[in-house]
Write a structure and sequence with these properties.
The chain is an alpha/beta fold. It is 29% helix and 14% strand. It contains 10 helices and 10 strands.
């Protein structure tokens, strides 16, 4: 599932953004249509060369990222090129959905993307004030994102999915209950809700003191909302080592971090669920010390799936 960064620019400045700092958003030429075609050709040829930084070796789907990928000046040309050159690949796209507030744009996207296709939309809060403050966005951004999600849900074809994502930081946690209730009431037909513990790197370092929270504290607050979490059609938790979470949240855990980004503590060697665990993001270990994370005992009643990306099924009654 290579992450393919289509464009460096974005119409938001989310506090938790993990994109690189510096001149990352000024490298337009490196993300031109011609440059992307050349990278995709090298990826298709294989040969052991790593073309894309994340998950380049996986060959089942592409994840289109940014910046905001839909802002690429030749976005639909890129999309059509990928569909033509990799017809067997599933397409996924991460977006803030503001451009999709335009019904013609959303319709054209869904027509061009075909099936299977999935859009993951970032939501930062349950209302305009909260969302726009955390997203670093102008007034009106929240309503655009909401309309974008509504358009995706209304216009999609069978085989096209919509995921709503939240990145968990100290800024989001006070409004998490309200945001989850908003999602459940406003978008009950969404295919998935995904909650992601933030990566302490890139642009998020600029506001680290505002964002930082221990994983176990974040998990404690998630567990308090268990009755809401379990009612979603599908809920996923990303970037949490198993020891951070109460056992009843383990069935929501998906392991999606690049192995090159994680470490394990020395005492993890003796943890009975070590091989099912995503590990600890290196930046969390470096910045937070990971003193809140300790090996666990395997709880009874958990059914292993045998699938490394989703290690545990629901608790047996």
């Amino acid at each position: 599932m290579p992450d393919v960064p289509l464009w460096t620019d974005c119409n938001q400045a989310c506090a938790f953004c993990s994109n690189p700092t510096g001149d990352f958003r000024e490298q337009a030429q490196a993300h031109s249509f011609e440059a992307l075609k050349e990278k995709l050709a090298r990826h298709k040829a294989g040969g052991g060369e790593r073309v894309f930084a994340k998950f380049d070796e996986v060959r089942d789907y592409f994840t289109l990222t940014g910046g905001e990928p839909t802002m690429h000046p030749r976005f639909f040309d890129v999309l059509e090129h990928i569909k033509r050159e990799f017809p067997e690949r599933e397409l996924r796209m991460l977006s803030n959905a503001r451009t999709l507030a335009s019904e013609p744009f959303a319709r054209r996207l869904l027509d061009a993307a075909g099936i299977p296709f999935e859009t993951g939309v970032i939501l930062c809060g349950p209302d305009a004030e909260t969302h726009e403050r955390i997203a670093g966005a102008a007034k009106g951004a929240f309503s655009q994102t909401v309309r974008g999600i509504e358009n995706l849900l209304r216009l999609r074809k069978e085989g096209q999915r919509v995921e709503i994502r939240m990145v968990l930081t100290a800024l989001q946690m006070p409004s998490l209950r309200a945001t989850l209730k908003f999602i459940g009431e406003r978008f009950p037909e969404a295919d998935r809700v995904t909650l992601i513990f933030f990566e302490m790197e890139g642009r998020s370092e600029w506001r680290f003191d505002d964002l930082k929270i221990e994983m176990t504290e974040c998990a404690r607050q998630l567990d308090a909302l268990y009755s809401i979490l379990r009612d979603f059609r599908e809920l996923r938790l990303y970037h949490f080592p198993l020891c951070a979470l109460p056992a009843r949240l383990w069935p929501f855990v998906w392991n999606t971090l690049d192995p090159r980004k994680v470490v394990f503590k020395l005492e993890c060697r003796d943890c009975p669920v070590r091989l099912s665990c995503v590990g600890i993001h290196k930046t969390y270990a470096r910045k937070m010390g990971a003193g809140d994370l300790r090996p666990v005992e395997r709880p009874s009643g958990l059914a292993p799936t045998g699938f490394p990306f989703h290690p545990f099924e629901a608790l047996r009654r």
